[in-house]
């Protein structure tokens, strides 16, 4: 009986839906839907291209089904999953009836900045999470809601970020911009009072962004073109715990003395750079990655200023492999100072 109904529906669908489905894609989709039919909510307003479950009526599942447009989003929907389709653009008005949206997931599509309306997201006053990673964007969509806490644009083609892009986003905590082609960000992050995580790996930055948010705890800048670290960069960001600067162009000359000797830092990744010395680090640091540099000498004073039974480092992980030192170069006193390190990789 259900099969008959579904086949009838297919007839209607073929005429009325503008999505460019092949017949077989529709068939397999509807078969999949039949298998879940027990959960399908019949009385819930749900577009044909998507699935809505009676057990979770505020969510609309439209992922991985070759969609080329965002389907109609009913006003009761809070969570819309549109990832892994072939959506290239979104016109203004598409989300106008869906002002309760909290999550919009649009990653792994083909979104093109020129095909995104200026006010697509602007009316979504409750939007919390906007995931747009793995698209073809060359700029951020304008007029993003100030309510967003988690914003992801990784793996796009963004090169510039206008200075007012994140203005007023007082609750933004996570910002992902990795794998784009950003060269400079000016002071665009300055007002982000709640930001704790900034991911800008794999871009073209030549320096650490100025005026980083004060609450920042995790800063990922691996695989950029950074040659130096500004003096006092960590004292101006007193809550930073995880700093990753692997695969940049750092040299000893680019590191002011004591720039990493900051007691809040827990993890520091400086691997795949051009350092010749071990920088001075705080005794509170737990993980230090220095592999694949040009370090020639094991300087215990970088970890402990004095060597005695009571002054020691909290370091647990120390990687020094692929440098120019050998295990023989590690002094015996290291056993006191680095007593929490189980194994030094050289
Ligand atoms: C929004 O709702 C109105 C009234 O129900 C309807 O006429 C309109 O087509 C809807 N707009 C969108 C973009 O779905
Ligand atoms: C930030 O969150 C607080 C508490 O949830 C809320 O009252 C406030 O309106 C939010 N700010 C913005 C800009 O959305
Ligand atoms: C690192 O900073 C601490 C606290 O500010 C200080 O006591 C210590 O001497 C510094 N280490 C070195 C090697 O300068």
TrEMBL record:
Annotated InterPro entries: Leu-rich_rpt, Leu-rich_rpt_typical-subtyp, LRR_dom_sf, LRRNT, SLRP
Protein name: Fibromodulin
Keywords: Disulfide bond, Extracellular matrix, Glycoprotein, Leucine-rich repeat, Proteoglycan, Repeat, Secreted, Signal
Cellular component annotations (GO), alphabetically ordered: extracellular space
Top-level taxon: Eukaryota
Family: Belongs to the small leucine-rich proteoglycan (SLRP) family. SLRP class II subfamily.
Subcellular location: Secreted, Extracellular space, Extracellular matrix
Assembly, per entry: Binds to type I and type II collagen.
Described function: Affects the rate of fibrils formation. May have a primary role in collagen fibrillogenesis.
Ranges in a coiled coil: none
Position of the signal peptide: 1-18
Gene field: fmodb
Source organism: Cottoperca gobio
PANTHER family attached to this UniProt entry: AGAP008170-PA, FIBROMODULIN
């Amino acid at each position: 009986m259900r099969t008959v109904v579904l086949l009838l529906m297919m007839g209607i669908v073929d005429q009325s839906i503008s999505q460019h489905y092949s017949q077989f894609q529709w068939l397999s989709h509807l078969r999949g839907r039949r298998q879940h039919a027990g959960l399908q909510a019949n009385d819930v307003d749900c577009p044909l291209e998507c699935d809505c479950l009676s057990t979770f009526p505020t969510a609309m599942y439209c992922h991985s089904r070759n969609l080329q447009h965002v389907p109609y989003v009913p006003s009761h929907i809070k969570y819309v999953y549109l990832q892994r389709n072939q959506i290239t653009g979104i016109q203004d008005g598409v989300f106008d009836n869906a002002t309760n949206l909290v999550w919009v997931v649009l990653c792994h599509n083909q979104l093109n900045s020129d095909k995104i309306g200026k006010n697509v997201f602007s009316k979504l006053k409750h939007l919390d999470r906007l995931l747009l990673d793995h698209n073809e964007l060359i700029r951020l969509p304008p007029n993003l809601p100030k309510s967003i806490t988690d914003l992801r644009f990784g793996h796009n083609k963004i090169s510039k970020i206008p200075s007012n892009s994140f203005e007023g986003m007082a609750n933004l905590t996570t910002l992902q911009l990795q794998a784009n082609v950003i060269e400079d960000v000016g002071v665009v992050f300055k007002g982000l009072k709640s930001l704790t995580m900034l991911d800008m790996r794999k871009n073209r930055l030549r320096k650490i962004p100025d005026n980083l948010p004060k609450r920042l705890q995790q800063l990922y800048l691996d695989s950029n073109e950074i040659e130096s670290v500004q003096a006092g960069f960590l004292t101006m960001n007193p809550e930073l715990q995880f700093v990753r600067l692997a695969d940049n162009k750092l040299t000893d000359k680019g590191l002011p003395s004591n720039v990493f000797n900051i007691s809040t830092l827990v993890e520091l990744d400086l691997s795949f750079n051009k350092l010749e010395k071990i920088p001075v680090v705080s005794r509170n640091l737990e993980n230090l990655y220095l592999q694949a540099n040009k370090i020639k000498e094991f300087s215990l004073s970088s970890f402990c200023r004095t060597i005695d039974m009571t002054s020691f480092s909290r370091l647990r992980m120390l990687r020094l492999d692929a440098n120019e030192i050998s295990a023989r170069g590690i002094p015996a006193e290291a056993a006191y100072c680095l007593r929490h390190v189980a194994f030094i990789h050289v």
